[in-house]
Amino acid sequence: MPEKLVLDLPVAYSAVDRDQVITLRGVFACFQEAAIAHANELNAGTHAMAARGEAWVLKRMAAAIERYPAYGEALRIETWSSAVRGAKGYREFLVFGGAGEPVFRGSSVWVYVSLKTRSIVRVPAEVAEGFPSHPGDILCPDLEDLELPPPEPDSADVVQVSLRYSDVDAMQHVNNTSYFDLLQTALARLGRPSRPRHVRVRFGRGISSDVTAVEVRLARSPAGEPAAFSVALGNEIFARGDIG
Questions:
Q1: Which of 73, 134, 154, 180 has the least C-beta neighbours within 10 A?
Q2: In this structure, are 135 and 157 located in the same domain?
């Protein structure tokens, strides 16, 4: 089995914004599609979820975005597993634009969960052994150790954003790509640059399907400096990270 999966996808019209360039959610959807396709090839993705009663859940993600491609541009997505250890899987992404140049890349940490108990479990040996490992070319090698504190309440702007039927996935919680739609919506409403070049996020407990709206909290940081953010409801923080 090849170490890397290569997926060719054009930027779909459904993935672009009012300026016909890919949305922040669209960037992370590219990562998700490639990760699922690779896991399915290795019989450890959505096709195996029902049979095993187990699944991968994204816990951390970092992305560096050189530019946001426009509608119709051909993208080539490469993804590979950098390691599987214990209950965790580590995955990298590299996406090329129509001219063959890198447009964005990402690092991610996933945990393996039992759908019956909703608890983290060790990756079965047959699954771990089936993932070919390519340990090099890691964008964010310290991703797992980053604290990524949420913004302080007295120095953050708060935007309430409604959740939609389409935000909930087969795991019965808000899909990880929707968080970036929430974030970009808040940036636009606050009049801030809505296409960040760097995003790092740490996911907490999933947003359940009965939640109707959440708060996106954004630190008031000087222009050009990273800004902390969180997606929360009351004292519950569903995700936290920073953008730049």
A1: 154
A2: no
Place of tokens 């396709």: 37
Work out whether strand 4-10 and strand 119-120 pair parallel, antiparallel, or are unpaired.
unpaired
Strands 74-85 and 236-243: unpaired
- In angstroms and rounded to an integer, the radius of gyration of the C-alpha atoms of the chain is 17
**Residues 180, 79 within the same domain:** no
| Among the listed residues 222, 48, 66, 60, the one whose alpha carbon sits nearest the alpha carbon of residue 142 | 60
CATH number of the domain within which 57 lies: 3.10.129.10
Query: Helix, strand, coil shares of the chain as percentages rounded to 5?
Result: 25, 40, 35
CA–CA distance, 17 with 88 (Å, rounded to integer): 34
State the angle between helix axes of 24-41 and 176-189 in degrees (0 to 180), rounded to the nearest 10. 170
Quote the CA–CA distance of 239 and 182 in Å, as a whole number: 11
> For residues 237 and 220, what is the distance between their CA atoms, to the nearest angstrom?
18
pLDDT at 189 over 80: yes
Give counts: helices (H), strands (E), the chain. Answer: 4, 11
The pLDDT of residue 66 = 98
Query: What digits encode the pLDDT tens for the residues 82-98?
Result: 999 999 999 999 999 99
Please provide residue 33's backbone torsions phi and psi, each rounded to the nearest 5 degrees.
-60, -40
Could you list the residue range(s) of the whole structural domain that residue 169 is in?
Answer: 153-243
